[in-house]
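Structure ticket #2291
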Amino acid sequence: YVKFDDESKREKMSILNANRQQECETVFDYGVSTEERMKLGIPEQSAYFELFEGDTSSVTAHLALLFHLRKDFDRRATYMKRLPNNKFNEVIEVIIGMEIS
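Resolution: structure written out below.
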């Protein structure tokens, strides 16, 4: 049995959170441009990670929409398949809205 003090616990949790954040693929891993980011309605990278930390369905939805904007429909489909039904339907509505405007 090992007992850590509070500072050690914070340090270990920080390392775990950093690793988890690095493992989570986001639009920033694909060089999202400012124009694309604005079309997607997402903030700059630092604020993005704070807002969507742990929200994998929103992050995946953003990836699907990014690839839709780029007309990479195979990649869009890859991310769409990972979405839960409710988020999938939201993304479809956004895509339809993009096509209309």
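Closing remark: The mean pLDDT is 85.
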